[in-house]
Amino acid sequence: MIYGLTVDGSQGPVYRMKPGCVAIARACRAPIVLVRTCYRRAFTLPTWDRAQIPTPFTRRVTLAVGPYWIPPDADDDACEAFRLHLERELLELTSRAHARLGTPRERWRHFPADWTSQWRPDQLGSAFGAHDLNADDPPPWANRHARTPAATAR
Questions:
Q1: H or E stretch including 95?
Q2: Which of 45, 65, 74, 139 is most buried, judging by how many CB atoms fall within 10 Å of its CB?
Q3: Where are the domains of the chain?
């Protein structure tokens, strides 16, 4: 199954990742894949996060990076370091998406003014752990779908 979460929560602040996503991934032994979409033109809603609805025929950029893995035995400090890493990766994705659209920096809504990208121009993602960013190399403790004899026979 695939689940999607808005990681800055229902109350904000925008661009600040809440710990719930990391807690769910740790408990489920599941990876996190970060996704960011930006639009050239959109209607902006009068909500706390200034959510957007793209206008018809507008240009869109969607970027995804991952998987990122948090060990099931990670302590609170490790989870917080992981959360901060993912928060920074989301800012990197946002920066990269806006750059690909050619959006002027002053139009990046609520984006941190002091932001400086740490990614190289050819880079998409930076690993936190040994198994990050490699879908072909999940950690040994990763949740794998259990195969029952009945499911195998199909």
A1: helix 76-101
A2: 65
A3: 20-153
